Structure formats: C-alpha cells, structure tokens
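pinging the channel bc i need a second pair of eyes. not urgent but kinda urgent?? the chain im working w is below, pasted from the shared doc
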Amino acid sequence: MKIFPRIISAVIAIAVILTTGVTSFAAEIDVAQTSAEHNGSLLAADFDVAGTTLEPDTALPSKYSSLDLGYTTPIRQQIYNTCWAYSSTGTLETVANKLGLNTSHYSPMHMNHWGTKRDDGTGWQRDYNDGGYAYISMGYFTSWQGPVLESAYPQNTLITDYSAINANAKRQLSVNGIIYLDPDDTETIKTAVYKYGAAIGNYHVEDMYYEADNYAYYCNRPGVATNQLFGHSITIVGWDDNFKKEWFVEGNQPNNDGAWLCKNSWGTYWGEDGYFWISYEDYYLFDTRFGYSYTFSDIAKYNNNKKLYQNETDGATYEFEYIANYDTLTYINVFDTDADFNVIDKINFETQSQGAKFTIYKIPFTRTGVPATTTSKWTQLYTGTVEYKGYHSVDIADFTVNDDKFAIGISIENVNNSGNGIGVDEWLTSGGEKIFIPQSDYGHSYLIFSGYLMDVKQFYNDYLDDSIGGTFVIKAVASASTDPITGDVNGDGKISVLDATNIQMYLANLRTFTQDELSIADYDQDGHLSVIDATLIQKVVAGL
C-alpha cells in the first residue's frame, strides 16, 4: 500500500528497532471512482502487493476451460457495485465443483451485506450499494462467515433482514487456504486455474476496448491514474494461447495471440452467454492497484462438528512488519475455550513471508495470566516453511484444551530476506477518512521478541501513537469432543455416496486428504485407503 510514515516519538527501551526510527503505518490510499454504466465496483487504490510464483506440476496445455469441463456455475446478473462479491463466490463455486463438492450458487449479497459498517461503528465503512475491496471477500471466507446458499439469502434480500437471516443461514464451506498470485507471471495464473479451477482477476473497464463480435477485450492505454480506474472483478476459468490478436478492436490490438476466458456477472445477454476473453497483454488485468489476484487452495465442506477460534473476523488488511533487526519474532493469539470444542487440530494464519521458517507452539500462561516467555515450557506443534504468500492452514499434532483459555504462538524466522511478518487486521484510511476499523482489544494478541512480551494493543498505543491497533490473523480449528463417524469423509454427520466419491477422487489424485480425513475415510480400518473403502461405503448406503 502507499504508505505515509509517522515519526516514532519514543524508542522501545529494550532495543526494538523500527526501520530508520520511522514506522510505516496503516494506509492512506486514493480511492477510484466506480462505473455506473457497468456497475464497475472494485475500488482501486495505491496498494503495494506481491504474489506467489507457481510452478506447474505438469506441462500446461495450450487451451483449458473449466466451463467446458462443467466446473462453473450459471452466469448471474449483479446488482449494486458488487462485482467483487460475484467474482469471488463464482471462483469459490468453481474450485468447489472441481473438488467434487457439487455446489450450487452461493450468495454474493450475504457477503455484500456482511462487509458493511457494524452497529458498533467498526468494520468496512461502506454501504451495501458502494464499491468494495478484494480484502472483504477474503476476510469473509477465511473467517467462516460464509458462504451461504443463494436460496437462503437471495439477491433481493434487504440489509435490514441480515441479522435475522444470518443467524439461521447454514455455512456451506470452510475456506482455510488462499494463495496470492504473481500478477506478472502468466504461467502462475494458468497453473492456479488448471490446478484449482479458477482465479480472481481484476481489470479496468472502457467500452471502446471491447470487440463485441468476438467477445474480446484489450486495453492498451497506459497511464490511467488510480482515481480514474473503473475497476471490475471477474472469474478467470480458462485460457487459449491461440486466441487471435486480430480478434480484438482494430487499431487497439495486442502484439501476440492469447487470451483468458472470463466469467462475468453482467448476465447472459452480455458477451458470449456471459463469458468473454481478455488478452494476456491487457494493461490493467491483475493490476495490483485493485488488490490481490488469488485462488482458493484449501477448502472443505462445512462441518458443524468444527469450530474456528478467532479474535477477528475481517482477515488481514495489512502486514505486521514494524519491527526490524530481529531474525525471529513470535506472534501469539489467546482464545477463550468453548467446552464443546476442545480438540485443536489445525492452525490457520496469514503471512506474506514466503520462504520463512515457522514453528507453531502451544504456549502456557504465567500466574498473572499472560503467555509465558520461557520457551522450554512451550509445546511444539509443527515446524515448516512458508510455501506461498497468503492464508495457510496447518494440520498440527492434535491437543486437547482443558482450561478456560489457550494460547497459540507462531515463531517466524527471516530466511534469506523472506521477512518474518504476519497478517493483522489494521485500520485503513482514504482521503483522511477511515474506510476500515477493526474490533481490536487488549488480551487478544501478543508479540514476543528477544524474550520480551508485549500486548499488541499496547504496542500500537505506546509506540505507534494509535489507540485503535489491530489483531493478528491467527486462528485455531477445533473439533467437537464427540468422536467422528468412520466413513463420514466430508464431516456432515452421516455416511453417503458423496463420501465414497471423495475417496475415489483421492485415489485418482483429484483431491487431497488431511491425516484426520485419511483416518476417517479408512472404513475397514486396515491402515490404508483403497477402493475397498469406497465400495464398503456404497454398500452401507445401499443397505447391503
């Protein structure tokens, strides 16, 4: 993001060194206009974002289409400035279908209403008919606030009905992993679409660059200022290396063949039944001023026997990178325990420190009730390397919580300039006005450096002159105390044909299982998963 530094008035006594004595703080950004004609609704800003370069597991074809393979859901017509909500739900639907989760439409309006200002004044400072940011959808999904079905929360639902309907709307998926994609690498975007089924794409809309006869778009006008970008978000579901450059607007054609197949949200009467093509060379496709381009790398069917412990529900709006000169920093979140969900089996967190070494710990408390800094008392749950920039989910060594609270610490070590930051939900401003305000509080997040413990809320207040602060994006996935049902692979509380299908997809290398899922899927409990387990489940369903 575009940063306006603020001078630190004091230096932390134990030698916390902030870069050059100056801290980069929450963003002051310039917001773009929106397009009334097309409901162009993705607000551009001077974001400074970086993505991950992906390497394909196999040679990529010259043409690919999740539409042709039947993974996409039907085209919809957005209302209000909600393309960001439609593109993200459309992407998630495609990823889910590719995994065999056989989804129907999710509700973009539920996300749109969720991503508005809360009654207490916090959250995204927008109305439901305003434009939005990519951060809203990522926070919504990774905090398990959705998705819900379109049928449960239709497009014409009034925002005044949100609370009543939301209380009873069943969540459909648990989103645990998101990969930020390198916007400058075509092979990365192809790899994401090929492996997961779809990816988020954002671009600048001007009608003069659209060739309606060929459903082809290419903008070759450089130098559009941030506040003049008409942002629009779409779902990229394929590509064609041989899409002819001559098929774009005459006089505004790219240098080479090749284009992305895009699912739009302007109805079936626009484009080719709602789809169109964007040149690989478009000037503003994947422009970082629209935020991240990303895909969903880790999703599962929502399970009522699971709970997500979290101290924030908005996701990462910023990266906590205020402290320099320390190779390793430890970030801690403290959670209040729900007695019905006391078996912790996964830890989710956000970081952009790709290549860094990280270690996850269960951290005990001192007599005064704060996390202990004596590392010999910590229990190591997992160690590994940050594989990509984005949201991660780690299958840890399970442990049971027997107290009224527990603490999870993540130590991140800077390796070859990888950085050692972590995601934080921190306020954002534009034109001097807050566009996002977090629900931060004392006792939720702590920072440890060189053996020194500090409440992050206090850190913001004392050393950054900020009374709002933020909360680390560290979450814990817990299972209910009841034992899972053997064969119930998708965790919906019953054995069905879908469980057998999931096993068959795993055996065909079309999806992955966690260790817990492998154990549950092993129906005959012989220690390995085979087609026999799928057959036995089918017999159970058939009453045999």
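so The chain has nine helices and 28 strands. and The two ends are 60 Å apart (CA to CA). — does that match what u expected or am i reading it wrong
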